[in-house]
Amino acid sequence: MIRLYLSEPMPVFAADLAIALNSDQSRYLMSVMRRQVGDEVSVFNGRDGEWLAVIHEAGKKHVVLRLTVQTRPQGHALGPTLAVALIKRTPLEYIVEKATELGAARIQLLITRRSNADHTKVERLKLIAQEAAEQTERLDVPEILAPIRLDAFLSAPGCEAILFGDEETTHEAERVTRRLHEVLSTLTGNAAILIGPEGGFDDGERQSLRARADVHPVNLGPRILRADTAAIAALTLYQAVCGDWR
Q1: pLDDT in tens, 27-36
Q2: Under DSSP, is residue 174 helix (H, G, I), strand (E, B) or coil?
Q3: Given CA atoms 102, 106, 110, 116 in this order, what sign does their dihedral have?
Q4: From the CB of residue 122, how many other CB atoms can be counted at a distance below 10 Å?
Q5: Is residue 152 within 8 Å of 209, Cβ to Cβ?
Q6: Burial level of 105, CB count in 10 A (0-12/13-18/19+)?
Q7: CA 78, CA 32: separation in Å to the nearest integer?
Q8: What domains sit in the chain, N to C, each tagged with a CATH number?
Q9: To the nearest 5 percent, what fractions of the chain are helix, strand and coil?
Q10: Which letter does DSSP use for residue 107 in this model?
């Protein structure tokens, strides 16, 4: 069944509520998917669970749905924050799509000394996340947060722990780089997974990260991973160890 995420401000979902779709969603239903009055679709808004709706009125650019019954209640998002440095457009879009599929609660874009922010289109990334949520039966869409500098991210309150994929494994007595799944098994609160840019963080950024008590340097294996591979691997381990795959 077709699923639609309804993001525009609207009343709380309830039986018999009429909802006018925007022109893009109306065109998608009627012109692309060839739906007709009386057909059913599934809708969600990230707050009120998933609902069955019937197409009540229809035109090429104007569709009104009428809600009938709730099919799933809204749960609580348990996924981590994925903080990812800006990289090339295609792999960044891939990260957003897969992070949505893997249950990230939010995606914070970061500007680091080796990143390039010229190509970033946050609205396009939000649309990619929305489409991924519709396809994977999520009941919410992760927040896509506009790029901020790494130091601003670190100074802002939020996550109890930041898991930093450190490519340069060290065995210093106080800051040993541990395996990711070992650190995940010790978490008791919300966490952020930090993925660096192409070429990694520079020496100054690494030193700043490793100096913080809330940052946990972790090892993602013996091979150097691309940023998109690292993000997917880290989120997969998170869900398997302390997320909704348990």
Answers
A1: 999 999 999 9
A2: coil
A3: positive
A4: 12
A5: no
A6: middle
A7: 34
A8: 3-72 (2.40.240.20), 81-242 (3.40.1280.10)
A9: 30, 25, 45
A10: E
Classify burial at 137, counting beta carbons within 10 Å of its beta carbon; exposed 0-12, middle 13-18, buried 19 or more. Answer: exposed
Q: Which amino acid is at 118?
A: D
What is the spatial distance between Cα 145 and Cα 142, in angstroms, rounded to a whole number? 9
Q: What is the pLDDT of residue 22?
A: 92
44: three-class secondary structure by DSSP: strand
Q: Can you list the residues of the chain whose pLDDT is less than 70?
A: 117-119, 157, 168-175
Q: d(Cα 5, Cα 118) in Å, to the nearest integer? A: 29
Sign of CA dihedral 204, 209, 213, 216: negative
Q: Distance between CA atoms of 21 and 149, rounded to whole angstroms?
A: 36
Alpha carbons 40 and 20: distance in angstroms, whole number: 15
Residue 114 corresponds to which tokens in the numbers above?
A: 């080796």
CA distance to 201, 204, 216, per residue, from 210 (Å): 12, 10, 8
The C-alpha atoms of residue 147 and residue 111 are separated, in whole angstroms, by 6
Grouping H, G, I as helix, E, B as strand and the rest as coil, residue 179 is strand
Q: How many CB atoms lie within 10 A of CB 181?
A: 14
pLDDT of residue 145: 96
- Name residue 72's beta-bridge partners: 50
DSSP letter, residue 32: I
